[in-house]
Amino acid sequence: MSTSPEYATFHFHALHHADQPLLLPNAWDVPSALALAGAGYAAIGTTSLGIAAAQGCPDGHGRPEVRDATLALARRLAGRLPCPYTVDIEGGFGGDIGQVRDLVAELADAGAAGLNLEDGLPGGQGLQDPVRQAELISAVKERAPSLFLNARVDTHWLEDAPPPLSVTLSRAETYLAAGADGIFVPGVTADEDVSVLAAEIPAPLNILFAPGRHTVSRLAELGVRRVSTGSLLFRTALEATLTAADAIRTAQRPADAAGGEVMGYEEVQRLVGEE
């Protein structure tokens, strides 16, 4: 496919209306994004946890250094992927509406096809007022109308006791009216809840994949249009790192401990090498 920003954005929108849900693996740096794109995935997302952790920061706290690292990664990916990519910007990294608009404009200039914008407050301190969040969504869409804005509703992510689905649906309705292109509800795992959200939300529904609870085929049957891996791949990579290190310590082959082959030095060099 063409790698022009205009076509990438158009294609990314279309992927949410295809016959099968968009399975979106989330990368945390250039090599992970290039490897996933090279494996044939139709689009790549970034994971805010992976990027924040790489800076030695917690996720979801709106740290300026995480904002800078997120934007830097988006710029490094520009023109290097054969598929669209979308960027997780938490809740805007604590910026006011003007600052978030500027960030989104920079992401669009870098070639991003979409973004995630969550309504959870920094540090897990509850949820943003939906009216204020709608104002932010509207301002962002006005500044970068072509980007696919995935509005994340954190009713089931930050709350120990999630409110009724009617609260989630009310927020989704408000955000769509403000211009959001899709709705992301992480933390929902029960089939019946996913089914209600998919039926009641008149836009592509994004669900966070839960190992042991979800399969892509079942989520497709329930009406989900996008399935994200979130930080799962990053956390799996960390676990694989520990497994390999322990294998060396106990005189095993790292590949045997990991259950497969290890990517070679030259292969990594080719992966990240400039065209």
From TrEMBL:
Keyword hit for Transmembrane: no
InterPro entries (alphabetical): ICL/PEPM, Pyrv/PenolPyrv_kinase-like_dom, Pyrv_kinase-like_dom_sf
Gene3D superfamilies in the record: Phosphoenolpyruvate-binding domains
Record-linked Pfam families: PEP_mutase
Key words of the record: Lyase, Pyruvate
GO molecular function terms listed in the Swiss-Prot or TrEMBL record: lyase activity
Keyword Disulfide bond: no
SUPFAM superfamilies: Phosphoenolpyruvate/pyruvate domain
Annotated PANTHER family: CARBOXYPHOSPHONOENOLPYRUVATE PHOSPHONOMUTASE-LIKE PROTEIN (AFU_ORTHOLOGUE AFUA_5G07230), PHOSPHOENOLPYRUVATE CARBOXYLASE
Name of this protein: Isocitrate lyase/phosphoenolpyruvate mutase family protein
Annotated organism of origin: Streptomyces sioyaensis
